[in-house]
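Dear Dr. H.,

I hope your travels went smoothly. While you were away I took the liberty of generating a structure for the chain from your last submission, since the lab meeting agenda had it listed for discussion. I wanted you to have the full record in hand beforehand rather than looking at slides cold. The sequence, exactly as received, is reproduced here:
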Amino acid sequence: MELTRLRSDEAIRERRDALIREVDAILNRAADEGLFCADLPAGWPGALLPQLMQLASQELPDLTAAQAADVVVDTFLRGLGAR
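The corresponding predicted structure, in token form, is as follows:
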């Protein structure tokens, strides 16, 4: 289904908006609990997460969905620095 149709379909848009609100609530809670650096620009975690998910889906095709999710979460919360 093309993206413009997805955005114009009322039911799909409502479900997408509800999911975005849920993710935003989770990210806000994570920020409130100190899981993110306090000096990040506003909205940066919410902008970064879908990009990481998209990149993982394209660049990690040999991983299971659970393995790819682990890579995304680890990268999202810990970055790429050595441990």
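Two observations you may find useful: The chain has four helices and no strands. The chain has a mean pLDDT of 89.

With kind regards,
E. W.
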